[in-house]
Amino acid sequence: MELIFLGTGAGVPSPERNVTSIALTLHDERGTMWLFDCGEATQHQIMRSPLKLSRLEFIFITHLHGDHIFGLPGLLTSRAYQGGKTPLTLFGPPGLRDFVETCVMLSGSHIGYELNYVEVQEGVIFQDDQFTVECGLLEHRIDSYGYRIVERDIPGTLLKDKLVADGIPPGPIYRQIKMSKAPVEYEGRMIDPREYVGPAISGRKLAIIGDTRPVRKSVELARNVDVLVHEATFALDKEMLAHQYYHATSVQAARIAAEAGARELILTHISSRYQGDEAERLVKEASNIHSRVYAAYDGYQHPIRRKNQEQGDS
User: Fold this and answer.
1) Which residues pair with 90 in a beta bridge?
2) Domain locations along the chain
3) Residue 309's pLDDT is what?
4) Alpha carbon distance 220, 210 (integer Å)
5) By C-alpha distance, which of 98, 100, 99 is closest to 88?
6) Residue 254: beta bridge partners?
């Protein structure tokens, strides 16, 4: 599971930063990727990355401002030409379907795969045996949503040495023991999986907060996540400007991360006034409040590690 930032700027593109889009790769988990927002030129950014549109499963839109959705029509039509045949689902505020279908109709475009829409409301919007996705309403000039993604816990490590010591040699029975919650029969014996499987491994948690002023809902969505991605349009000295335009500062994002107990904080949606190394100013400000802070840039890749993994693990 890894985040790849395709656009990290605010409002309009700049020579350094495209407008907002973030990919979540789930190649090992489900052979797909998810996309959060799709600003103008997102498909160009994907071409410069290791991502493939044919693997795109879901797109989650935070809100309907142009810098978050103007890349959708081109990307959706290009996906068909790049081998995308599987169904694709778009999650987002009311009006998303009208926007996409109007663009497709007026341009005479053709989408040769099943395209589904889910108009989001606060609460759980997707759930299967691997992931749960929840969204919450934030505070912006129009309805804007943050997303919380939770991976299900996975079975613990199989205690192979103990199995061998108890006369159970390697074979298909090992998988049955690891995956079963009930006793498993083996050569007339009933094997209790709890004796041979270590504690369950906690699933990873991620929150992506769209454009917003600092609000309580952001803390709730980010509670105990491994990674919080939060907009940080402005530095601390522009707090009044941030409030006026319904955005957040680096310090406000850090306060939310600290209160929520987020392990890592990634700042994005950065104003074009912070060019080059000036973005590090945002990191320094936030680091006074939260210890693990990163400033995203276009092309930045950030693995989402389990809490028991060392920094060098993949």
Assistant:
1) 59, 117
2) 2-153+202-301, 160-195
3) 55
4) 14
5) 100
6) none
Q: Which amino acid is it at 171?
A: G
Q: How many other β-carbons are positioned within 10 Å of the β-carbon of residue 164?
A: 11
On the 0-12 / 13-18 / 19+ scale of CB atoms within 10 A, 274 is buried
* CA–CA distance, 22 with 205 (Å, rounded to integer): 16
* C-alpha to C-alpha distances, 173 to 12, 182, 257, nearest whole angstrom: 57, 13, 44
pLDDT digits (tens, 9 = 90+) for 234-293: 999 999 999 999 999 999 999 999 999 999 999 999 999 998 889 999 999 999 999 999
The pLDDT of 64-91, averaged and rounded, is 94
Top-tier CATH class for 2-153+202-301: alpha beta
pTM of the complete model: 0.89
Asked whether the predicted pLDDT for residue 312 surpasses 80, the reply is: no
In sequence order, what are the beta bridge partners of 206?
149, 227
Token pair 């680096």 in the structure block, residue = 250
Residue 21 has pLDDT above 60, yes or no: yes
Calpha distance 306→283 (Å, rounded): 23
Closest CA to 146 of 75, 73, 225: 225
Q: What is the pLDDT of residue 314?
A: 31
pLDDT per position as a tens digit, 211-229:
999 999 999 999 999 999 9
CA distance 17 to 110: 30
Q: Does the pLDDT of residue 15 top 80, yes or no?
A: yes
Which helix (H) or strand (E) covers residue 231, if one does?
strand 227-231
DSSP 276: G
Q: Look up residue 275 and give its amino acid.
A: Q
Contacts of residue 282, Cβ cutoff 8 Å, sequence gap at least 6: 232, 235, 250, 267, 270, 274, 295
Are 254 and 233 a contacting pair, CB within 8 Å?
no
Tokens of 297: 């840039």
Q: What is the CA radius of gyration of the chain?
A: 22
Which residues participate in catalysis according to the annotation?
67
